[in-house]
Amino acid sequence: MDNVAVLGAGSWGTALAIVLADNGHNVSLWGRREDQVNEINNDHKNEKYLPGVELPENIQATTQLNECVKEADTIVLVTPTKAMREVLGQLKNELSSPVTIVHASKGIEPGTYKRISEIIEEELPESVLDSVVVLSGPSHAEEVSLRQPTTVTVSSVNMKAAEKIQDLFINQNFRVYTNPDVVGVELGGALKNIIALGAGLSDGLGYGDNAKAALITRGLAEIARLGTHMGANPLTFSGLTGIGDLIVTCTSVHSRNWRAGNMLGKGMKLEDVLENMGMVVEGVRTTQAAYELSKREEVEMPITQVLYDVLFNNKGAKQAVDDLMQRSRTHEVEDVSSLKS
Ligand SMILES: NC(=O)C1=CN([C@@H]2O[C@H](COP(=O)(O)OP(=O)(O)OC[C@H]3O[C@@H](n4cnc5c(N)ncnc54)[C@H](O)[C@@H]3O)[C@@H](O)[C@H]2O)C=CC1
Ligand SMILES: O=C(CO)COP(=O)(O)O
């Protein structure tokens, strides 16, 4: 039985805390709001993020970061990508010996184009960082919290650390695989959110399954194109953290990215969509980061490009789909294997 600190008491942090608590670990969950922490400790609920779900009693929440991490053998970071540097800045002051950090967030930082494991390594000194492990895959919090069958992948340059984290999380409802390709695992998880926005947008416009299948397939092609260019193993994109997560995010009503795209497709403005959601929609910032990175690296990403124009340049949703359909003709498979279209 381990002591595990989970930083981020939103949907995914709370769902992962449930998995860990089901496995018998002592879980300390860090939240920002006093009322939410009281609700978790006294009523064993987190109604805003996981309505109707009863939380195990071995999850104890706190607003005090030092309290949360002081006994922790492992720290699981599950705040939005935007908050990572701020949270790591606070965490650095609370650590005195090396600890394994697991992160389960999905994004790329605009401006630096860093993956989250790179941000962690930048912000935490080696003296307090044992290993970084990424946890990713097709896993909506709503289903994980109901103990529905789910599979994820953990990845690290230190495979012993990845296996330790596999042991920590795995149970009969939550099957955990390992993969040494950190770059591919992180990029697959981050970039699929862009395509999910596109799938929602297409559904919002009233287009059908043909359009969605096209977005998923051609989306995977551009994810793999950027990913392999950045050093990922192409095979990772046919796994759980590639096509697996792409399918679940593009087809599930649980997906915040899909829902945001859907509202955009129905004509809502981005700022109203984000306000309406009240939860993180990682795909918006990731679209900006991936668009800029693809320009810098000269990697063609047509879906990302039109999504960027919809989000940041007022392009209409229908016009975006028309633009994709009217691109100059190209090969299909060559496009992936030669990394050029
Ligand atoms: N919800 C899901 O099913 C899944 C989410 N993820 C990823 O997990 C990450 C977190 O997502 P969710 O939990 O769903 O988001 P959420 O919107 O449900 O919750 C985010 C939580 O982070 C907290 N937070 C925000 N800024 C913070 C800051 N500066 N300091 C401390 N806490 C802060 C919020 O108060 C909230 O409790 C995202 O990167 C998302 O892509 C990954 C897999 C599944
Ligand atoms: O990453 C997820 C499922 O694997 C969650 O996706 P959303 O952030 O779109 O809800």
Automatic annotation (TrEMBL):
Belongs to the NAD-dependent glycerol-3-phosphate dehydrogenase family. The keyword Nucleotide-binding applies. Residues 3-161 form the Glycerol-3-phosphate dehydrogenase NAD-dependent N-terminal domain. It is an enzyme of class 1 (oxidoreductase). Residues 181-321 form the Glycerol-3-phosphate dehydrogenase NAD-dependent C-terminal domain. InterPro entries: 6-PGluconate_DH-like_C_sf, 6PGD_dom2, G3P_DH_NAD-dep, G3P_DH_NAD-dep_C, G3P_DH_NAD-dep_N, NAD(P)-bd_dom_sf. HAMAP family: NAD_Glyc3P_dehydrog (MF_00394). Pathway: Membrane lipid metabolism; glycerophospholipid metabolism. Keywords: Cytoplasm, Lipid biosynthesis, Lipid metabolism, NAD, NADP, Nucleotide-binding, Oxidoreductase, Phospholipid biosynthesis, Phospholipid metabolism. Coiled coil: none annotated. This is Glycerol-3-phosphate dehydrogenase [NAD(P)+]. GO terms for molecular function: glycerol-3-phosphate dehydrogenase [NAD(P)+] activity. It comes from Fictibacillus norfolkensis. The keyword rRNA processing does not apply.
